[in-house]
Amino acid sequence: MEIFSKIAEQKIREAIERGDLDHLENSGRPLNLEDETWIPEDLRSAYRVLKNAGCIPPELELRKEVLNLRELLDTIADDKERLRKIRELNFKLMKLGEMRKRPLNLEQFPEYEEKICGKLTE
Questions:
Q1: What's this model's pTM, rounded to 2 decimal places?
Q2: How many other C-beta atoms lie within 10 A of the C-beta of residue 95?
């Protein structure tokens, strides 16, 4: 996937140099990051209420926990505690994958990407 990102970046740079992006509609205005088109219509109002209350969707909460666990693993010296946290991390990653209903992006977790690629090439 990295090759596609590089190609896209190159195309964007070329368009900027040619001036193709100078006179776009809404140029200079902030992006609307409140796009709710990905949320089913019957859940939009509920999500808005939860967001205003400071709650986040379960998938994002779990992802935050995974990232925190990864950082915590670097600080644990006790092997038993470290193994327990690794198991907890693996469980949360599995649960996150199930919630997403699509494969987990392994580029976000390079230590697992290497292990899985190694297993697949055996």
A1: 0.46
A2: 15
